[in-house]
Amino acid sequence: LCQTMKTLDLSRIHIVGDSLNLQFTQALWKLLGHMDDPMTKTSKDDPQWLRYQYSRTVECPSNFQFEIAFTRNDLIDGQETNIEFDKIDDHQFNCGNTEFCFPWNPIYTTYPGKTLLIANTGSHVHS
User: What is the pairing mode between strands 53-60 and 64-72?
Assistant: First the structure.
C-alpha cells in the first residue's frame, strides 16, 4: 500500500461512512501492522465523539508517510457543522433517530494533499 500511495502521489485515505466503515478502517490499520487502535480516544476523559472522527499517520519505508482518516457519517450528507459534539456518547445520535452524521466535507476539501475518498452508507441507511 505504501508504494501504491507514493506512486499515485496520494497522502491520505479518507473513509466516510457508518459503523461497518469504522470497522473497515480499524481492520486496514491492523493489516498495515499496527498493534494499537487507530482511534484517538485514549482515556475515559476524552470526548466520546473522538472515536467517530480521527486521522492517523502511517509511516512507510524510505521516509514516506500517509494518513488514514475516518469520519462517521451514516447518510454521507454534506452537514458542515455539529454544535452538539461534546454531548455525543455511545447512545446519542446527532442526525435522525439512529444515525451519526459528523461533518466530513470541510475536512476533505481543506486538506492540502491528494486524497483517496472512500464513501459508503453501509447498512445504516434505510430507504
Answer: antiparallel
Q: For the chain, what's the residue count?
A: 127
Asked whether the CA dihedral 58, 118, 109, 9 is positive or negative, the reply is: positive
pLDDT tens digits for range 36-73: 888 765 666 666 666 778 889 999 988 999 999 999 88
Q: Which residue(s) pair with 15 in the sheet?
A: 70, 118
Query: What average pLDDT does range 84-105 have in this prediction?
Result: 66
How far, in Å, CA of 53 to CA of 72, rounded?
6
Contacts of 95 (CB under 8 A, 6+ apart): 74, 75, 77, 79, 101
**pLDDT tens, 73-94?**
888 876 665 545 555 555 566 6
Q: Give the whole-angstrom CA distance, residue 33 versus residue 60.
A: 11
CB atoms within 10 A of CB 38: 21
- Which of 48, 101, 52 is closest to 73 using CA atoms? 101
Chain Cα centroid distance, residue 45: 21
pTM, two decimals, is 0.84
